[in-house]
Amino acid sequence: MKTLNLFLLILISFQINYSQAESLDLKLISVKVNNEIVVPSQNKFQILKSDSIAVHYKAVSKQKGEIFYRIFVDAKLTEPKILDTIFVFRNFTLGAHIIKIVAYNEKGSESQALLIPVEVIEKPIVQEKTPEQLSEQKSFDFQPYIVPSLIGIVVLQILIIIFILVKKKSNGVKYNQNKEELEELKYSYKRAKEELAKQHEVNENLRKQIKELDENVKTLEKTNVKLVEQKEKLAESKARLEYLHSQKEEMFAIAIHDIKNPASAIKGYIELLNSYELNANEQQEIMESLVASSDDIVKLSQQMCVIIAKAMPEPKLKFVEYSIEQVIESVYNQNTSYAKAKKVKLYNKSSIDLPKVKIDPEKIEEALDNLVNNAIKYAPPETIVEIKSYVKEGAKRMVVVEVKDNGYGLSEDDLKKSFQKGAVLSNKPTGLEQSSGLGLWIVKRIIDEHNGKVWVESKLSVGSTFAFELPIE
To answer: What span, in angstroms and rounded, lies between the C-alpha atoms of 274 and 133?
Structure first.
């Protein structure tokens, strides 16, 4: 009965492990009982209850990585994960036992199970001698007492046969019981095989689901990358739009401010025409100034239209070799009538021997006009405004342009914030003109774009000097 159970257990284990074996090849190297190598007897190893049995095994893998071993005794897991290739078993109970060894690696591959049948007995079984061993014994001499012995043996065999026949009848019932147990084992084996098939089917479905999930994860990752790229592009576009918006606002502020200067000049010229009797030359000068101021308004209006149409920031500067003397002369002519209307004396004391400078003439004229217009706007009647220019020698040659007045001057607080955007100084225009706080900021912005420098020197009740310098290339 035990032999039949053992056979079925080996068969089931073989079926299961054969289906799971992959790339690992597990081999039995040797079996030692009490440190002596033994060979199986009738496909099993026989040991005494007091003996220890050492099993030496080895797994070979085509894959790299460590190989681990699971040890089972009678289908019970005794060691789930070991690296040693020799394992010693002790304290077996009497009867038949199965030692099962399975190799596996970190990737989940398993070897075919190595099954070692072991039978534990109380006393050693004396093995029958082989014909060769018998041949080595000395032949007995035929003695007279051998005939009675043979007769006794024959009688004993007859008694044994009679005993077996009687015993066979009594064993009929046991045979039927064994047959029923065998049928039950067959049914259990069939059920186990069906459960194994179902488990394989479940595992296959799980593998398919895992594969689908992996594909979904990859798709989501790709989508996420695209979303991140779109987010970055939108952030860049937003930053650029914000920059363009700020540039457009600054441009409009500059344009509106600069339109105000020629508009104020035109108003002054018209007041002169209405208030004074002027000769033909003076009238001609005023008309020329009116035309120049009108041209400035038209140019600024055209720039605003272009920027609005293109939704772009202010056009880049157009640098050309140009004479600073011509810029100063143009600004002086535009503001002459305005100075007369304010009863301020305007003088052009610039040098007549200035080198040409690489500038945007319209922008430099815009910056100088702001300085001159401001000086006249804040100057008390009967005071002087002078425009000076000269070349400054040093590490770099520079053209310096100054606008000097002898008006009220600026306080320390006013000096600190003179060129800040929107800063309104404490002095008030003497003709009740409006002040936006943008004029000096525009000057600094233009001079900075020309890689120049702007500054102011002032003293209360003495006057102020606003100046800028441009590099001579």
So the answer is: 155
Q: So what's the pLDDT on residue 58? A: 92
How many structural domains comprise the chain? Answer: 2
For the whole model, what pTM was predicted? Answer: 0.41
The distance from CA 328 to its chain's CA centroid, rounded to whole angstroms, is 58
59 beta partners: 26
* 105: in domain: yes
- Tell which residue, 253, 362, 341, has the closest CA to residue 290: 341
Asked if residue 200 is part of any domain, the answer here is no
pLDDT exceeds cutoff 70 at 440: yes
Please report whether residue 215 resides in a domain: no
Range of the domain at 14: 1-124
pLDDT at residue 404 tops 90: yes
Confirm if 337 and 272 have CB atoms less than 8 A apart: yes
Residue 281's SS3 state is helix
- Exposed, middle or buried, 417 (CB in 10 Å: 0-12/13-18/19+)? middle
Q: At 400, which CATH number?
A: 3.30.565.10
Structural domain ending residue among the three candidates 124, 157, 177: 124
Alpha-carbon span 394 to 449, nearest angstrom = 21
